[in-house]
Amino acid sequence: MTKTTLSVIKADIGGFVGHSAIHPELIIKAEEELQSYKDKGKIKDFRVLWVGDDMALIMTHDKGENCEEIHKIGWDTFVEGTKVAKKLKLYGAGQDLLSEGFSGNIKGMGPGCAEMEFEERTSEPFIVFLADKTSPGAWNFPAYKMFADPFNTPGLVIDENMHAGFEFDIMDVKNNKIITLKAPEESYKILAFIGAVETYVIKNIRRRGDKIPSATMSTDKLSLLAGKYIGKDDPAMIVRCQSGLPAVGEVTNPFAFPHLVPGWMRGSHTGPMMPCSFEESNPSRFDGPPRVIGAGFQIAEGMLVGPRDMFNDPGFDNARQKANDIADYMRMHGPFEPHRLPPDQMEYTTLPKIQEEVKKRWVESKDGPSGKDLAQQHAYQALKDDELE
User: Which of 78, 134, 182, 378 has its C-alpha lying 20 to 30 A from 234's C-alpha?
Assistant: First the structure.
């Protein structure tokens, strides 16, 4: 059977106004570009969606994951869109394009990319989640709830096809390493890692036994790629639903809790992730709060049926109100943690420049232990630890 590949490639190529939204002309240009590739038989089908100031190219084809031709289509479409953004003097035109030319694989070049190759079932429902003003670790919480928490997903208990659980590929994005852990028996190990959302992010989820691909996420971190802050990563996630996988309602339910994520204003603040409709995905309050949309599709012989706006539902009104209440509370902290991110997550912002400016003005305090005293204390503690062993 011919396999279908779903590719989602996402980038910020210019904001309207500031970082709050995307200009309609960029969407029109992207649709024109992708239609030309469809007419030439390069791709089977496509949709162009957006969240905040980010554009997402959703494409189907039969060329598999990591296909150079498909990635170049995405790159070239963003390049053409950037020309429009520069003409309109949109903010940050082309900011996510970190290279002057395409090098064979779009991963590592700025845009986020999530792809899944699969054999179509009798019915093939998917949800493509797109987020703005946050990082790939924002998916850790909801993805775990979908595929490992029976209090969210009763199918893990009721559906015999899900009883064996799921396996999680977890990336260490700072050291470019990956590990596979299995739920339910390694759930505590999974949580030990994915709770640190800026270092460990879920990349793929598969059903155990038959290894059916179930979810995949974009994991690129712009600050690590560029060596400086140029914008938040604004990730994408593809989730396959039903028939031995979590039901659509089990997949959307975790977003009824607006969990805290890093990002928001200048990529430097913690805030609630608000599930919203396509129409309300334009974050303008303090460039937020962080947004997520859910685009539901059926896939039929490689063709996209949809999208359906999954969060355009009064069932998420309480989540949106709670997100606004949390935003009010967090904003009252001003420049203080925990609203502002801790120093280790600020290293790619302008904070290091401020530290460099004043570093010679730091002097040793007489009120605390000296470096020599601390070294002696550490050596003494090490001796005590050895004695206890």
Answer: 182
| Global pTM value | 0.92
The Cα 129–Cα 237 span in angstroms is: 5
Residue pLDDT, tens place only, 108-141: 788 999 999 999 999 999 999 999 999 999 999 9
DSSP category for residue 377? H
Structural domain for 353, as ranges: 344-388
CB 130, CB 240: distance < 8 Å: no
Residues 268 and 383 in one domain: no
Residues 372 and 230 in one domain: no
**What is the set of active-site residues?**
12, 229, 232
Query: How does pLDDT run across 297-351, given as a tens digit for each residue?
Result: 999 999 999 999 999 999 999 999 999 999 999 999 999 999 999 988 876 677 8
> Which residues in the chain show pLDDT less than 70?
1, 221-232, 347-348, 370-371, 374, 389
Query: Please, are residues 155 and 251 in contact by the beta-carbon 8 Å criterion?
Result: no
Report the DSSP beta bridge partners of residue 8. Answer: 58, 114
- DSSP β-ladder status, 291-300 and 200-207: unpaired
Tokens of 33: 């570009």
Question: How many Å apart are CA 83 and CA 85, to the nearest integer?
Answer: 5
Q: Is the preceding peptide bond at 307 cis, omega within 30 degrees of 0?
A: yes
In terms of domains, do 330 and 371 share one? no
Supply 285's token pair: 């309050």
